[in-house]
Amino acid sequence: MWQTNTYWFDVAVVMSIFAIGNICFGHFEEHKPKWIRLLKVVITLVIVLGLVSAAGRAWAYGVLVLPLLVAAYIHLRWLPQHGINGWTGEPKDKYLALVTRRRQ
Questions:
Q1: pLDDT band for position 103 (cuts 50, 70, 90)
Q2: Contact criterion met (CB below 8 Å) for 79 and 85
Q3: Do the beta carbons of residue 44 and residue 14 sit within 8 Å?
Q4: Residue 15 in 3-state DSSP?
Q5: 79: burial class by Cβ within 10 Å (0-12, 13-18, 19+)?
Q6: What is the Cα–Cα distance from 33 to 97, expressed in whole angstroms?
Q7: CA atoms within a 13 Å half-sphere pointing along the CA-CB vector of 77
Q8: What pLDDT score was predicted for residue 1?
Q9: Each residue of 83-97: pLDDT tens digit?
Q10: Quick one: how many helices (H) and strands (E) in the chain?
Q11: 45-101: per-residue pLDDT in tens?
Q12: What is the pLDDT of residues 18-36, one digit of tens each?
């Protein structure tokens, strides 16, 4: 009945990661347009599915872990070093000023 050797399983894994990420850290992305946030999901899904078919599931999931490690570093170390809570993004004005300054 349940099989894990299908592309649908990989879609479910990627979408679950994004669902959990949006629930826990979505407030960090509130300032971005929704189409950019949606495009990020689509691009990630295409890359992972492409890697699954070309290099195998282990490589695809290995590449998928890299941005998670970067996000963990940002939320657990970089944001607190700049006086921002890595879980809540507070103070919000300071967070938005830091993000805006980093993108310019």
A1: low
A2: yes
A3: yes
A4: helix
A5: buried
A6: 17
A7: 5
A8: 66
A9: 999 888 889 889 888
A10: 5, 0
A11: 999 999 999 999 999 999 999 988 998 999 899 999 999 998 888 898 898 888 887
A12: 999 888 888 788 888 999 9
Phi, psi angle pair for 27, to nearest 5°: -65, -15
Tokens of 1: 């009945």
pTM as predicted: 0.74
- Distance of alpha carbon 63 from alpha carbon 54, whole angstroms: 13
Write out the two tokens for 69. 């490690």
Residue 57, H or E segment: helix 57-73
Residue with tokens 């629930």: 23
| b/e map 42-78, b = 16+ CB within 10 Å | eebeeebeebbeeeebeebeeebeeeeeeeeeebeee
> Helix or strand or coil: residue 46?
helix
